[in-house]
Specification:
Pfam family, one: Sigma70_r4_2
Order of helices and strands: HHHHHHHHHH
InterPro entries: RNA_pol_sigma-70-like (IPR039425), RNA_pol_sigma-70_dom (IPR014284), RNA_pol_sigma70_r2 (IPR007627), RNA_pol_sigma70_r4_t2 (IPR013249), RNA_pol_sigma_r2 (IPR013325), RNA_pol_sigma_r3/r4-like (IPR013324), WH-like_DNA-bd_sf (IPR036388)
Number of helices: 10
Radius of gyration: 19 Å
Number of strands: 0
Largest sheet: none
CATH superfamily of the largest domain: Winged helix-like DNA-binding domain superfamily/Winged helix DNA-binding domain
Structural class: mainly alpha
GO molecular function, one term: sigma factor activity
Strand content: under 5%
CATH topology of the largest domain: Arc Repressor Mutant, subunit A
Distance between the termini: 72 Å
CATH class of the largest domain: Mainly Alpha
Helix content: over 70%
Number of domains: 2
Organism: Thermophagus xiamenensis
GO biological process, one term: DNA-templated transcription initiation
Length: 174
């Protein structure tokens, strides 16, 4: 009888060791994700530390297999809170793309791309980073951000359209 009730228990909380393993395993990825969004190592470190603290406070309610998702979701929401406190994003639909585009020749495409990404609204920037830099699926990004899968796709599409317009024709860049 005891084994039957034990096997019916489908919930397992994260142990301290599992929390530590999760943090060690994903620390670099979380930091990189946050840093790409805030472009400031000290601020990124603060946001990541807040993320770890929030996860620690709730580690007993996190299933160990969901640790990575919980960590990135918490980092995402902590980052959103930080960004909202720091500034108000310009909506891409309201932006005059001519102000952001340039036609001068330049050979460092990576630098141009970083400048373009900085111009994106925060929601678009974050879903693009989760998709293109971290490799998450649309569904996983939706779970992390609380957006629907279709919203995630729309944000990524709009971000990519903006980036194409910002960067301009490859002949100009190269």
């Amino acid at each position: 009888m005891e084994s039957a009730s034990h096997s019916c228990q489908s919930y397992k909380s994260m142990t301290v060791e599992e929390y530590n393993d999760c943090v060690k395993k994903f620390a670099d990825n979380v930091f990189r994700f946050v840093l790409k969004n805030v472009q400031d190592e000290e601020k990124a470190a603060d946001i990541v530390q807040d993320t770890y603290e929030k996860m620690w406070k709730h580690h007993k309610s996190v299933h160990p297999e969901k640790g990575k998702s919980y960590l990135f979701s918490t980092a995402y929401h902590t980052l959103i809170d930080y960004v909202r406190r720091e500034k108000h994003a310009v909506r891409i639909e309201d932006a005059d793309l001519k102000n952001y585009a340039h036609n001068r020749q330049y050979s460092d495409l990576q630098e141009i791309l970083h400048k373009a990404i900085k111009q994106l609204p925060d929601d678009q920037k974050m879903v693009l980073m989760l998709r293109d830099y971290e490799g998450y699926s649309y569904q996983e990004i939706g779970e992390i951000t609380g957006l629907s899968e279709s919203q995630v796709k729309v944000y990524i599409y709009r971000a990519r359209v903006f980036l194409r317009k910002y960067i301009g024709k490859m002949e100009v860049v190269i």
